[in-house]
Design goal:
This protein is mainly alpha-helical. The protein has 2 domains: 2-37; 47-176, no CATH class. 46% of the residues lie in helices and 0% in strands. The chain has 9 helices and no strands. It starts with a helix and ends in a 24-residue tail after the last helix. The structure holds heme C (2 copies). Residues 64, 113, 130-131, 136, 139-140, 142-143, 147-148, 154, 157-160, 162-164, 172-174, 177, 179 line the site of one heme C.
Length: 187
């Protein structure tokens, strides 16, 4: 409690200082933009994660699954049969990637979408796919199959970045969607 009020007081102080500063408007907008970003999912910041996990598909942000999912997926044995593919890698690299994913998982994140995923997966079985989360299925249930599986430029809902033009930045907002071969999907 005490800590919270200290944070509040310093936040208010920072805002007051900002608004009397010459560049007030700019820094206030910067602060707002930063704030709106936390509505999304934290972008990937680990180089090895980006490289190794971006090889066969887009490097999913760790904030899209809870920690126990990453712990299950990113074990050496599991990686040898990773959704039917052998995605084996150097044991030290895998350890680093595992720890990075677990530390930045949905249930460790303060980003809004991650918080929602964490809440929705707090109980029940450990999800191994992002596409099997109710949260993700609910967001896509209105899309006809022809735009996903039947779409030769997409093939599966797993390829987020085919339609979410800013998926690499962790942004999934409706306004940033563009479905290949269906420019008028929204009509
Ligand atoms: C050798 C290729 C390969 C590598 C490397 C690889 N993956 Fe995958 N991954 C796949 C395939 C294939 C699928 C299944 C895609 C599908 O169902 O269309 C998949 C699916 C996934 C899914 C489930 C996506 C969904 O449908 O929700 C997750 C999560 C995932 N990978 C995480 C990772 C992470 C993290 C890494 C890095 C440690 C990684 N992958 C590296 C091939 C790979
Ligand atoms: C076939 C294209 C396509 C693929 C592939 C796809 N999406 Fe989407 N996604 C959409 C569309 C279209 C919407 C907006 C639906 C609407 O407005 O009704 C959407 C909405 C969303 C939303 C909600 C956005 C909001 O503003 O509330 C999230 C989150 C999301 N997608 C995440 C993902 C993730 C994560 C993946 C990959 C595992 C993925 N999507 C794969 C097309 C796609």
């Amino acid at each position: 409690m005490k800590n919270n009020s200290i944070v509040l007081v310093s936040l208010t102080a920072a805002l007051l200082v900002n608004s009397t500063h010459a560049g007030a408007e700019e820094s206030f907008i910067g602060w707002l933009l930063d704030f709106s970003r936390t509505k999304e999912v934290k972008p990937v910041t680990d180089k090895h994660y980006q490289e190794e996990c971006g090889e066969c598909h887009f490097a999913y942000q760790p904030g899209l699954l809870p920690a126990r999912s990453w712990d299950r997926l990113l074990k050496a044995e599991a990686m040898r049969d990773h959704f039917g593919d052998n995605a084996e890698m150097d044991i030290d690299t895998l350890k680093e990637i595992h720890d990075y994913a677990v530390e930045n998982a949905a249930d460790k994140s303060y980003y809004k979408r991650s918080r929602k995923i964490a809440a929705a997966t707090a109980d029940g079985p450990t999800p191994l796919r992002i596409t099997e989360l109710h949260y993700i299925q609910r967001k896509h249930h209105e899309l006809p199959e022809k735009m996903i599986k039947g779409n030769r430029s997409v093939k599966s809902l797993s390829y987020c970045d085919k339609c979410h033009t800013q998926a690499d930045d962790g942004v999934y907002d409706n306004d940033t969607v563009s479905i290949p071969n269906y420019p008028d999907w929204d009509d």
